[in-house]
Amino acid sequence: MQTFKTNLPEVIVFAPQVFSDSRGYFLETYQQQKYAEIGIPHPFVQDNQSYSTKHVLRGLHFQLKHPQGKLVRVTQGEVFDVAVDIRRNSPTFGKWHGEILSAENKKQMYIPENFAHGFCVLSDSAEFLYKCTDFYVPGDEAGLIWDDPQLAIEWPIDTPILSAKDAILPKVAAIMDLLPAGK
């Protein structure tokens, strides 16, 4: 497995080894012991999948009392995936890392607990899969507006398609007291 460093030490990007031949390919998408060795410390308890069309932007989402680490990948299409450090006392607070994830490059990204997460679809459509370290708890979700100037995320699209909920998310400055203290 090939790993890639990011500007956020806790965010891990990697490409699993792919075995290809004339019939197609095989890859191991998760193996607990190997993933623990590269720095993913928690077991996963829930798998999710979403399908989105071109220019849909989902995020930036996080959980308040039940934070989830996420192991994300794309099985069809291409997305620009973003992790944002929202831990108030972290030396990388407000910093972000973006990565192109696609069915073609088969890269995966680990977004740790207490990081906001979002992605936008660059292809005509995309299937996005992710494993979570905690169960989803209705009413515990929160988020940040995708274009907050304080975060200055360099999204590759100017006019995303947003859900009604994502379109009215607050800026970082408006919810500082809700954000985790972190390390």
Topology:
Layout: E1 2-4, E2 12-15, E3 18-21, E4 24-27, H1 32-37, E5 46-53, E6 57-63, E7 70-76, E8 78-85, E9 96-102, E10 108-111, E11 115-121, E12 125-132, E13 141-143, H2 164-167
Antiparallel strand pairs: 1-2, 2-10, 3-4, 5-12, 6-11, 6-13, 7-10, 7-12, 8-9, 8-11
Q: How many distinct domains?
A: 1
Strand order of the largest sheet: 1-2-10-7-12-5
Give the overall silhouette.
globular
How many runs of DSSP E, i.e. beta strands? 13
Q: What is the count of DSSP helices, taking H or I runs of 4+ residues? A: 2
Any idea what the CATH superfamily is called? Jelly Rolls
The CATH class is Mainly Beta
H/E topology pattern? EEEEHEEEEEEEEEH
SSE class? mainly beta
CATH T-level topology: Jelly Rolls
Helix content: under 10%
Looking at this protein, list some descriptive labels:
Jelly Rolls; mainly beta; 5-stranded antiparallel β-sheet
Folded structure, characterized:
A hairpin with a 2-residue loop joins strand 3 (18-21) and strand 4 (24-27). The longest helix is centred in the N-terminal third of the chain and has 6 residues, at 32-37. This protein has 2 helices and 13 strands; from the N terminus they run E-E-E-E-H-E-E-E-E-E-E-E-E-E-H. A 6-stranded antiparallel beta sheet has the order 1-2-10-7-12-5, with no helix packed on it. The protein is globular, with a radius of gyration of 16 Å. By secondary structure, the protein is mostly beta strands.
